[in-house]
Here is the input.
Amino acid sequence: MTPEEREAMRILQLLFGRSANEVNELFESIGISAVLSYIKGEPITIPCIGRIRLSYEGDDLTMKGKEAKLKHEFTPSPFLVRNIGQLEDGNETEIEKILTNRFKPVFKTGN
Here is the structure.
């Protein structure tokens, strides 16, 4: 795992409120699902992110050995498009609403 992937996993663990192991298992499962989609010749669908279509273009030789060379095409999900549009327009995003509702009980003081 790259340092960037480790940092992304740490952030997701904090946002999701789950253990590092649970977050890791979720993303391993997404990775497995992605390979299965590739085997079936289907685009890889990642909910709330989008679809990725991969095609194999051969191998590259790197210092680590052979590495698959992949061509990719990304189609963002409506959720991602909508939230980025809201952000760029200066409006409250769905993501802000989700996070507010998720963390409100954590910061709420007793009545």
Residues 77-111 form one domain. The first strand starts at residue 44 and ends at 46. Residues 32 and 38 are 10 Å apart (CA to CA). Helices lie at 3-16, 20-39, 78-88, 94-107.
